[in-house]
Amino acid sequence: MSKQISFFRGQPAALSYRGRWPMSRPSADSLIHCFETLIVWQDRARMRHRLRGLDDYQLKDIGLTRADVEREASRPFWRA
Fold it and tell me: What is the pTM of this model?
């Protein structure tokens, strides 16, 4: 007696459907890209916070005004 297996999108139903719709697994490249994006966002937020903490003498030394700093620091971390 042979066991009948139902197929869903080319795979046995037991392997492709486990209580939810079959989804492709994220690739390693996409996970690495997400992780790198989070690191960039964290660095950007940290740099903007530190820039806001500089005094006027230090800002003049690097060629920025207080208005430049406030404009940059008020931007969301996800915007370059």
Answer: 0.61
